[in-house]
Amino acid sequence: MKTSSKKATSINLLNFRTPQMKAFHLSWIAFFLCFFGWFGIAPLMAVVREELALSKSQIGNIIISSVAITIFARLAIGWLLDRIGPRITYTYLLILGAIPVMLIGFSNSYESFLVFRLMIGVIGAGFVVTQYHTSMMFAPNVVGTANATTAGWGNLGGGVTQMLMPLIFAGFVSIGFLDQEAWRLAMVVPGILMVICGFLYYRHTTDLPEGNLKDLKKEDFADKVEKKASKVSFATVSKDYRVWLLFLIYGACFGVELTINNIGAIYFHDFFELDLKTAGLIAGLFGLMNLFARSMGGFFGDKAGMNWGLKGRVWLLGAVLLAEGLSLVLFSQINILPFAIGSMIVFSLFVQMAEGATYAVVPFVNRKAIGTVSGIVGAGGNTGAVLAGFLFKSESLSYSDALAILGITVTLVSVFSFLIRFSKEDEQEASEELINSIAEKNMEVAPAYLM
């Protein structure tokens, strides 16, 4: 793997020394902890619901609030990344974002809980930082895999928190705390971990393979980077129809994942009459698929790009999204627990593959504004989750009906992926970059992973 001042052309998972791999590992760990804090309260909602006497409509509002603010946070942070870089951005996001995570325990009413849940949603913007940082560190032959893996392993936090938070809660109960105290204390744990990660990110990562933007200004390198980025305004990027199609598509995959993270445990708790720990463990299986599923989407996206160019990446995205929609409809109709678990795992596979395939396309839409494009597309995921939240808020719809409607919607959205087009110039530029990255590996395409 080339290291010094060039983008890496392979992913060496056991390498923790180069700037590219330090960014790779710390960015997925940071996003993992963001997810852990973001959805830490979700598997404990049955306890919170009982204590605060929350209605289904109020829980729906809480679900919406947890993802709504992230839309604006992702848009803002994408613009910020193009100007100050990922290192400082992630450091502040982790440390400041930990504050509402730890303070949500002070909630004593529906209104105060809603406000803290809204504030916690800002840390979901960590996804954009993770994608930006790996896009800056890895070459075209593996950038889709790098993006998908770091995001997927980060999203894994959404599954682990479903399993681990009920256990942390039970641990506090076992040493004598009441339920009302235990869920509050449990939320302090992810907050502390986020603060620690913030300091590690600042200390051990760089903005680019060449170094930090602040240091590189002395060599006039960063000035060129900033000048290049500033040529493309947010308004210019927002006029590209492909950005908004990807916004819609990402809402149909990541928006669905956020929704399941929010309602999964309470769905299995209520619909199948399971206890809190069992429901959390089952719901956590959905997120655990991120261990490899999102990486598969990025990996196959890279392979499609090598064989069929940028259009190959788009075709793969459309096919996987279609499979997601159909499998979600199937999951919504099953009322036998073992079959429901199996269909959920299949559905989860396609959800996360679609996410990885989306960000195998994103870096090629506008190379001069990767942060802004990533931010807009990332915000699409939260927009999808907000809209889905209204389905689950409705008193007239069961959760099964809402899931079926969501699956049909995803199936219809998959058609829009085939409207994404790249010019001959875009295809040629991507092809030249791929050839250059292959040349750096002695004219041999390296495997995506090296052990």
TrEMBL record:
One of its GO terms (cellular component) is plasma membrane. Its main location: membrane. InterPro entries: MFS, MFS_dom, MFS_trans_sf, NO3_transporter, NO3_transporter_NarK/NarU-like. Residues 23-425 form the Major facilitator superfamily (MFS) profile domain. The chain crosses the membrane at residues 26-47, 59-81, 88-107, 113-132, 153-177, 183-202, 243-268, 274-293, 314-334, 340-362, 369-390, 402-420. It is found in: Cell membrane; Membrane. It is a multi-pass membrane protein. SUPFAM superfamilies: MFS general substrate transporter. GO terms for biological process: nitrate assimilation. It comes from the Bacteria. GO terms for molecular function: nitrate transmembrane transporter activity; nitrite transmembrane transporter activity. Keywords: Cell membrane, Membrane, Nitrate assimilation, Transmembrane, Transmembrane helix, Transport. Belongs to the major facilitator superfamily. Nitrate/nitrite porter (TC 2.A.1.8) family. This is Nitrate/nitrite transporter.
